[in-house]
C-alpha cells in the first residue's frame, strides 16, 4: 500500500506544480472618479486577496474629470470600468461597444440637496426653485426629472462643487450624492436634507461594472471571475471596511477615515446595494425588467433614441450564478 501511495503521489507532483506555477491573469479596472468608499467592493477584493483567489491580478486606476473611461475601454486600454446605467446606455447609443455586466448600487446615489425647513418634500416641490446642476445632469437624470415633475430649464444654475452658493440661498437646491450630502452640508455649516431620486422613481442602476464586447467574447472566464470576486468584495466591505479604507486612503489621501466611516454608514442605512434582485447575497445582480423599464423612461424623456436596441448594453450571463 505504501508503494502504491508513493507512486500515486509521484504521479501527482507535476500537476501540483503546474497549479502552483499558474500566474494570476493581469486585469485593469478604471474607476469613474478618484478612489472613494463608494468603490468599496473593488478595494476590499484587492486588499483582502479576493481577486487573487479567483486567479486575477487586478490593477485599479483612478478616474477623474479628465479621464474618459469609455474611450479607454473602447480602445482596449483597460479591461473593466466602473460606470452607471445611463452613461452606458448613452455611450452605447453613440456606437461605443461596451456592456454592463453587474450593478452594485440598486439605488443610484444621486440626490437633490434642500435646506431644512424649506418645505420641499419631493421633486414636485422643486418648481420655481433654483437648482445647481452640473452639465452632465442634462444628459443624465434631468430630462426625466423635468418631464415627470414639471420642472423647467430656466431653473438651472451652474453647479458649485463647494456648495457655498447653495448655502447662501435658502430657497436654492443643488445636486448632491446621498453618501456625501451630510458631510458637504456640515462643511458649509447649513442644515439640509437629501431627496434621493431613487426614492421618487429614478430607476437607474449605479456603481456598475462595464467591459467590452471583445472581452466578453474572448475572455468570458475572466469577466465571470471579476464579477464573482467583486461580489465577495462587497460582502466583505459591508462586514468590515478597514482594509479597503486603508487602501483607498493610500491611493487618495483626501479620504480620511472618519469621512469614509460616515459614507459607509450611509450606504448601509440607505441600503443602496439592496433590492429584491440581490436577496441571498447576489450583490451586483440585474434584471431584464429593470433595464427595459429604465430605457422606456429615458426614451420617453427624449434622452435616448426611440429605436435604440438597449439590450445590447448589458448582459445577465455573469450575474445569474451569483
What does this structure look like?
With 322 residues, the chain is an alpha/beta fold. Helices cover 40% and strands 16% of the residues. It folds into 2 domains: 24-106 and 204-313, 3-Layer(aba) Sandwich (D-Maltodextrin-Binding Protein, domain 2), CATH 3.40.190; 110-200, D-Maltodextrin-Binding Protein, domain 2 (3-Layer(aba) Sandwich). The protein is built from 13 helices and 10 strands. Strands 2-1-3-10-4 form a 5-stranded mixed beta sheet, sandwiched between helices. Strand 6, helix 6 (142-149) and strand 7 form a beta-alpha-beta unit. Helix 2 packs across helix 10 and helix 2 packs across helix 11 (242-251). The chain is globular.
Task: Name the strands of the widest sheet in spatial order.
Answer: 2-1-3-10-4
Order of H and E elements: HEHHEHEHEEEHEHEHEEHHHHH
Termini, distance in Å?
43 Å
Secondary structure tally, helices: 13
Which CATH architecture of the largest domain? 3-Layer(aba) Sandwich
Q: Which fold does the CATH topology of the largest domain refer to?
A: D-Maltodextrin-Binding Protein, domain 2
Provide the low-confidence segments as ranges: 4-20
Strand content: 15-25%
The dominant shape is: globular
Number of strands: 10
Category from helices, strands and their pairing = alpha/beta
Compute the gyration radius: what is it? 22 Å
